[in-house]
Amino acid sequence: MRYFLSSSHYRSMAFLLLLFGGGLSLVQSWAGDRCEFNATGSLATARIDHTATLLPNSKVLVVGGYGVGSQELYDPSSGTWEARENFKIGGGYHTATLLQNGMVLVAGGSNLRSRVLNTAELYDPARGGWKLVGRLANAREGHTATLLNNGKVLVAGGYAKASGYLSTAELYDPATGHWSVTGNLIDKRGFHTSTLLPSGGVLVAGGYNDSGELAETEIYDPISGTWTATGSLATPRFGHIMALLPNGKVLVAGGSNGPETFASVELYEATTGVWTSGASMSSARYRPAATLLQDGKLLVAGGCCFQDSAELYDAQTDRWTPTGSLLTARDGATATLLASGEVLVAAGANVSGNLLSAELYECTSGVEPAPVKSAAAPTPGASLEMKALETIPDTPRGLTTLSQPALFARGSSSCSR
């Protein structure tokens, strides 16, 4: 298995991988603004390979991380964090999905002893507590979790020490609290990305398996419960970002094949099933934070190797332009939309190790921006955060789920530029 390190070696690497480097989010932007990153309150616990989810009460729930079993809540009104009841299993490389009922589903991952899990838990923001909700048919980490239009959550692929890379997929039904098996992926894969398409299908791209990095992509049909192959990427990759753009195309950018890190961009046209080249980013990036702005532009910040730069992609012109830089270089951070329209970038790692710090990406101008809708009662169009990446409500265009756990939890990259 090329480019793979053992858990002990991985832990010793200064650039430990993110929990799915930060999912995509919607954020309000406006013309004539000045956008920059500013410091906000620091977390109590440094972490990477965590998840961050916007709750209906406008707070942000950060869960776990590699070797971390705690959770914290960020309050945008005060810019501070508070420790909360730990989730029952603990650890990282899990997924976290905001359900239509306002609860957060945390599935799979690995615990503090690096054991890959088949457990799932629900966080209830109203009472601030956790409860176990059944078990997955397969223990897994490095999988994706995508909120479907019917309210169910599709969990696909991943990795487990006992069984290796997985092709299996499962559905969680919040109405019953039960898991059920659905059709298998065509290709075994982990540390991939998934995006809910306007059609209601789920596009899965890239990732890694025993044969190496993947170019193959496939689409899940929630009606038939089956997967169909579609066009392949020109460049096999993992640790990339993925976003559904306002023009209906899906963007894949950056990532790595192990020895090389990419700046290249590919665009998927769902009507033809074909990938074409887009304008490359100004910098090669692996596991950056990425945020889809409300005006349709895509913000990409940081990434390996420990970059502080950020840039914006305009789908209308197929061009990238620089924007304000991070205060602290980092990769493996999460990026979460706040109700104010600001974006919270939290934790991650750089040469100094795992980070406590957090930053806000905010824009100022002479005109007060309109507030962005909160995450209450989401209408799925895709799952975001990431992560995640998980859902931004009431938006006409689907967002993306970045493979939430660490984009490549058991691999490394030379981060060449």
Give an overview of the whole structure:
- The protein is mostly beta strands.
- It has a single domain (7-402), classed as Kelch-type beta propeller (Neuraminidase), CATH 2.120.10.
- It is 1% helix and 36% strand.
- The chain is built from one helix and 36 strands.
- A five-stranded mixed beta sheet has the order 1-27-28-29-30, with no helix packed on it.
- A hairpin with an 8-residue loop joins strand 28 (298-301) and strand 29.
- The longest helix has 6 residues, at 7-12.
- It is globular, with a radius of gyration of 18 Å.
- The chain starts with 6 loop residues before the first helix and ends in a 15-residue tail after the last strand.
- The relative contact order is 0.23.
Give the neighbour order of strands across the main sheet.
1-27-28-29-30
Low-confidence stretches: 1-31, 366-417
In angstroms, what is the radius of gyration? 18 Å
Shape assignment: globular
- Distance between the terminal alpha carbons, to the nearest Å? 23 Å
The number of E-state strands comes to 36
Mean pLDDT across all amino acids: 82
Q: What name is given to the CATH topology? A: Neuraminidase
Number of helices: 1
Which structural traits does this protein have?
disordered N terminus, five-stranded mixed β-sheet, mainly beta, 417 residues, 1 helix, 36 strands, globular, five-stranded antiparallel β-sheet, single chain
